[in-house]
Amino acid sequence: MINWQAAQLRLAERNHAPGNPDGVPGPRTFTALYAWAAGRKADAAIGLRGRVAAERFAEYGMTTAPRIAEFIAQCCNETGGFRRFVENLNYSERAMLALWPTHFTPEQAHAAVGNPIEIAGRAYGGRMGNAPWPSHDGYTYRGRYDLQLTGKANYRWFGDLIGIDLVSDPDAAPPEAGPLIALAYFRQFQVNDAVDRGDFTEARRITNGGRIGLANVATIRSRILEIFEEA
Length: 231
Hints:
Layout: H1 4-13, H2 27-38, H3 44-56, H4 65-78, H5 93-99, H6 106-112, H7 116-124, H8 137-140, H9 152-162, H10 177-188, H11 191-197, H12 200-208, H13 214-229
Helix pairs in contact: 2-3, 2-13, 4-13, 5-6, 9-10, 11-12
């Protein structure tokens, strides 16, 4: 069981004041925890995630220190410290050919540099529920939200899971869609089972498809667990 009062005191010692150390993990406590994980002061994006955490973590099984730490760490890694929630498509010709060798010829990659609509259209078109390029589906349903959800089929699936229309106009989705999608993803793909086993490599594979970002997630996770372990 988490000693939340001790955790609140530890956060306060680190200049991330969670409000009154009453042992109740409310929005201010989770906002402070997210800010500590990101290594910066809380802003609106972090505050919103703190609120969602206080309201919905228990419902999604985020009830142990390792589960909470892994979840926040994965999302922090994917969003650059909760700053970027849409995929950066500024890929070089070389990167396109390395990442999507069956989707680009050298000529196509060269021509697409600086054109994010074409890059995403070719990279993601014709799969994940997207129509093939020259449809703009690949761009419309590019990586977004806290875990970089990609593809029209996934937007529809997770929109249905959280009760928010993500397909009609992804840009119009309310900001709480991001953390709710991530929570639904962890539950749908049983990421917490890997966390409970201590298999964080598998937790990263489920979330990301490989090992990219594994070391950074581990660093952030340790930073969060410091709050709980010392508590």
